[in-house]
Every structure is written in structure tokens, then in C-alpha cells.
Design goal:
143 residues, Archease, Possible Chaperone, Chain: A, domain 1, 3-stranded antiparallel beta sheet, 8 strands
Length: 143
């Protein structure tokens, strides 16, 4: 688990920090944290369906933001909970490109013990930095 929840940082929201050696690792760790905010045990989400998606942004931090927002969109619009099984992040002509696969299933309130409803990823104090050879993301979720 390459993330930790930050207590007492966001009064009515949830804050976390995620990290990884490379961009795919920090993106996946942040996605894992978002799913873990939504459900008690992300392992309860079975890999019955896939969602493949691609995103692009001029800014790497906003690409992570868009990526996490996509997971909230799937939960809201399609009632789909998914674990990220593959994520690739690469430079693309001065911008950044991402392709990812989420494996999961439709929300089942009988099996998925829900914690809170994540409404959005906030830009408040949202950061993605590289320090001492490691990528770190700081994220606050609106719940």
C-alpha cells in the first residue's frame, strides 16, 4: 500500500498522500486510495468487467487529477467500482498521455461495504512532485 490517509488535514473532506518510484506507481497508488475511501475492502471488488480509457493533458499534475476524476465518473455515471490493473504515463509532444485499464464490477450494496461517497477530486493543495527519486501526490477528496 503506497498511500496513507492524512488525519486532521481536511475537516469535511479526506486527504491522502500517495507515492511511487515511477509515474505508473504513484498514479496507481492514488487510484487505490480513492477506491479505499469509497469501499471498506477494495479486494471485495471482483474483476468482472473492464474500462479502458485514455487521457491527455499539458500538465502532469492535471493528468493525475483527470485520471482520478475518471474513476469518480465511473462510480457516479455507471455505478462501476474498479481497481487499476494497468496504467501507462508517457510524454507526448510537450504534453502527457495516459492509458489505463480498470477492472471491477457494478456497485453491489450487499457485498461492497461503502464508506463514503466521493463527490470530486479537489484542486485545493493538489500536488504531484518528484523528490529524492520518488513521485509523491497530495490529494484532497470532496466527500
Amino acid at each position: 500500500m503506497n498511500y496513507r490517509f492524512l488525519e486532521d488535514e481536511a475537516t469535511a473532506d479526506v486527504a491522502f498522500e500517495a507515492w511511487g518510484e515511477g509515474l505508473p506507481e504513484v498514479f496507481k497508488a492514488a487510484a487505490d486510495a480513492v477506491l479505499n475511501v469509497m469501499v471498506d475492502d477494495p479486494e471485495d471488488v471482483r474483476p468482472n468487467e473492464q474500462r479502458r480509457f485514455a487521457l491527455q493533458n499539458d500538465r502532469l499534475d492535471l493528468l493525475l487529477y483527470n485520471f482520478l476524476e475518471q474513476l469518480v465518473y465511473y462510480k457516479d455515471a455507471q455505478r462501476f467500482l474498479g481497481n487499476i490493473s494497468r496504467v501507462e504515463v508517457m510524454p507526448d509532444n510537450g504534453a502527457w498521455r495516459l492509458s489505463a485499464v480498470a477492472e471491477g464490477e457494478k456497485l453491489d450494496q450487499e457485498r461492497h461495504h461503502l464508506r463514503v461517497d466521493v463527490k470530486a477530486i479537489t484542486l485545493h493543495e493538489f500536488t504531484l512532485t518528484r523528490k529524492s527519486g520518488q513521485w509523491r501526490a497530495h490529494v484532497i477528496l470532496d466527500i
